Amino acid sequence: MNLTILFYPEERDYTDLFQGKTVIVLDILRATTSICTAMAHGAKEIIPVRKLEEALAHKGSNVIIAGEDNGLKPDSFDLGNSPSEYRNDRVKDKTIVFRTRNGTQAIVLSSPADHLLIGAFVNSKACAQKAASFHKDIVIFCSGTRGDFSLEDSAAAGYLALILSSEYNVKLDDAGLLLANTFQHIQQNSFSLLKQSRSSRRLKDIDKWDDVSDCLQIDTYPIVPIVHQGIISLDS
């Protein structure tokens, strides 16, 4: 198996690149962390959408409308994009329609993948194990920040690359080699570098600093959210 890392999405058709492969989408701050948290606390399923209007089209039905725009919960949404909002019984057995500026964009763009997994620091070991179990080439798709490189997504990609190469004999591309070998240094310094990233600083500016610590927890949840026909549910 071979691993490829993509640092951020482009507005394009990914069919040729993703077909026949396993794709792991990362949006550490905060979408994929919140998705993993919601699923670990009993959410039935999550429907990722790209536009605010798509999310609001579900208003009035028996679902939770969640996510963010410009980092904050829209007034018309039920929940925002902080992992702490999903650590309670409110999401248990619920369908969540989820829209964020970066993460859900990458998830929807990844639909051509044979297997589409939701990854984060909080479930990296479980996610790597599941990805390797399909015995297909793997793509780690970082959601980035507004169409640009994201430090925390790339660090998480490095952690996944380290696990995949050391435990499952996955061959890394050059980006994977670099990131796997720098991750341990980043971790040894208590993720202080990641707390200086553009997204981290933005969350501090909008009074969401606690989200950063939540999203940098390692292997909290032994679960793997999987996308099938546009719906995220737990691997069974």
TrEMBL record:
Entry-linked Gene3D superfamilies: ComB-like (3.90.1560.10)
Pfam families (UniProt xref): 2-ph_phosp (PF04029)
Catalytic activity: (2R)-O-phospho-3-sulfolactate + H2O = (2R)-3-sulfolactate + phosphate
Keyword check for Mitochondrion: no
Recorded GO MF terms: 2-phosphosulfolactate phosphatase activity; magnesium ion binding; sulfopyruvate decarboxylase activity
Keyword Hydrolase included in the entry's annotation: yes
UniProt superkingdom: Bacteria
UniProt keyword list: Hydrolase, Magnesium
Cofactor(s), by name: Mg(2+)
Its EC number(s): 3.1.3.71
Classification via InterPro entries: ComB-like, ComB-like_sf
Membership in a protein family: Belongs to the ComB family.
Protein name: Probable 2-phosphosulfolactate phosphatase
